[in-house]
Amino acid sequence: MQDDEFESHEEPEESITKSILRFEEMLRNKKSYFFDADTLLRITEFYIENFEFEKALDVVKYAENINPAMEVFQIKEAYITYLMGNNEEALEMLERLQDIYPLNDEIYLIKGTILNNLQQHKAALEVFKHLLTFTEFKEDAYYQMALTYNYMQDLHGAIHYLKNCLFENKKNTNALEELCECFLNTNRTEEALTYFQTLIDNDPYNTLYWYYKGQVYQYISQFEEALNCYSYCHITNESFVDAYIETGHCLMMMGEYEKAIDSYKQSFEFGIPDTLIYEDIAKCYDYLENFEEARNYYKKAIKSNPELHSAWYGVASTLADEERWYESIHYVKKAIEVDSTVSDYWFLLADCERELGNIDLADEAYRKVMEMDPDYADIWIEYPEFLYENNQFDAALEYAKIGVKYFPYQPEITLKLASLHYRAGNLKESYNILEEAVGSFNNLTTIIQEQYPELLDDVNILKILEQTGNQ
To answer: Which CATH architecture has domain 273-376?
Structure first.
C-alpha cells in the first residue's frame, strides 16, 4: 500500500465541516472526543463568523477544560462574551488576563473595542496608546485609534492615525477606504489627491490607489479625471467591479446615459448584479425616455429587493409619464406601503388621482405632503392650482400666500400667486405682486413664458417687465 493512501485530500472547507459535525455529535452523545487545539480554534471561528456565539462558547469551554492554561482560548472566551453583549463581564475577564499576559496585543485590541462600544472613547485611546508602547505590530493599534477618533467625530485625528497605519502597511484596504472617506468628509481633497498620487508613484499597478484617487475627483465633480483613474483600475485589474460601477456613476452625472448603462452592465460580468445598479440602469433609461426598459430594470431591482421603495416609485413615475394613471397608482401605493414618509410618493399619487378626477383622494394626498413636508416647494405650486381648478378660489389664494411665506425667494411660487390673482380678476393685486417680484428675481419673463404664458397677453404686465429690464 502506498503512503499517499493515508494522506488526507480533503478541502479545508470539507475538513472543518466534518470537524464541526463530529464536535456536535460529541455534545449530543455526552462523550469526549479528541480535537487538537488548531481544529477547536477553527470551529470557534466558524461559529463566530456565523453569529452562533453560544456554540462558540461551548467550544472554548471544552478547549479550556482540556488545557486550562491555553492563552488563546481564554481570550476567545472574553471576546465571545463581548459579542454576546456582556460588555462589563468581558472587560473584567480581560483585566484578569491582562495581569497574566501583559504583552498580549489581542487583549488590548479587544478591550479598546469594548470601551468604544461603551462610548468610553478616551479610555479606549489610552488602551491603544499603551499597546503602542510594546507591540511590534503597530498597524492594528493605529487603525483602532483612527476608528476611535472617528467615533469622537474628530476626523482630522482619524486621518493622522490612518496615515500612521498605512505607513506600517500601505495595502491595508480598510485603512485606505476610511482615509478616503475622512478626506472627503473634511474637504481635504487637495491633500487627498496628493496623498493617493504619492502611493501611485510608488506602486503604479495598485488598483485601489487609482480607485480612491478617482473617488476624490468624483467627489469634487471632476468627472473626466475620475474616469481616467477608473480606466487605470480596469488596466490593473480587469475584474475590479467597483470601477465599472463608479464609471457608470460618473457617466450618469455627465449625462452620458447610454455609456453609463454599458459600464453598469459590464460590472455584471465580474460580480453578482447589485440591486442598486439595476436601479441606476433604470434611471438612465428613464432619462433617455425609454420607459419600457426603465421599468424592466426597476422591476429587476424590485425582484432583487422588494423593500426598495424607490424602485416601486420609479415604475410608477414611468407609467405616469405615459399617462397610464391607474397603473401608476398601483405602483406608487406599493412604494408608500414600504415607506410612507417620502413626500414624492404622495405627490405623485395626488397627481394621478387628480388626472383621474378623484378630487377627494387627490386632495387627501396633497394635504399629506403639506403635513409631512411643508418645505416641499412643488406642493405650494400644484395644490393652489388644484384648488383653483376645482373652484375653491379663496382657498387657492390663501395656500399660494402661505407658499410665498415659506419660499420668499422662489419666483415660481410668487408667480403662481400673481397668476391666480390675475385669473380671479384681481388685476391690481396681480400687478402689485409682479412689480415687487421684478425687483427681486431675474429672468421672470422666461419663467412666465414657460409656466404662466397667459400673463404675457396683458399689456400692463409687459410694461412692468419692460420698465425694469427683466426680460
So the answer is: Alpha Horseshoe (1.25)
CATH number, span 187-268: 1.25.40.10
Q: What is the per-residue pLDDT for 7? A: 39
Question: Smallest Cα–Cα separation from 114: which of 134, 140, 86, 133?
Answer: 86
CA 27 to chain centre: 44
Distance CA(253)–CA(221), nearest Å, equals 9
CA dist 73 and 163 (Å) reads 33
The answer to whether 137 and 105 are in contact (CB under 8 A) is yes
Coil, strand or helix: which one is 120? coil
How many angstroms separate the CA atoms of 2 and 137, rounded?
45
Q: Which of 117, 118, 116, 81 is nearest to 96 (CA)?
A: 81
The answer to whether the 187-268 and 273-376 domains have the same CATH topology is yes
Would you say 78 and 97 are in contact if contact means Cβ atoms under 8 Å apart? yes
Residue whose C-alpha cell reads 472617528 in the numeric block:
150
Quick one: CA dihedral 181, 182, 184, 190, positive or negative? Answer: negative
Q: Cα dist. 304→276, 283, 309, 327 in Å?
A: 9, 16, 12, 21
pLDDT > 90 fraction of the chain, expressed in percent and rounded:
83
The one-letter amino acid at 163:
K
Q: Which residue has the cell 388626472?
A: 355
Residue 167 cell numbers, joined? 505607513
Rounded CA Rg of the chain: 32
- What are the pLDDT digits (tens) for 350-366? 999 999 999 999 999 99
Distance CA 471, CA 464 (A): 10
235 CB contacts (<8 Å, ≥6 apart)? none
What is the maximum alpha-carbon separation in the chain?
110
Q: Are 83 and 53 in contact (CB under 8 A)?
A: yes
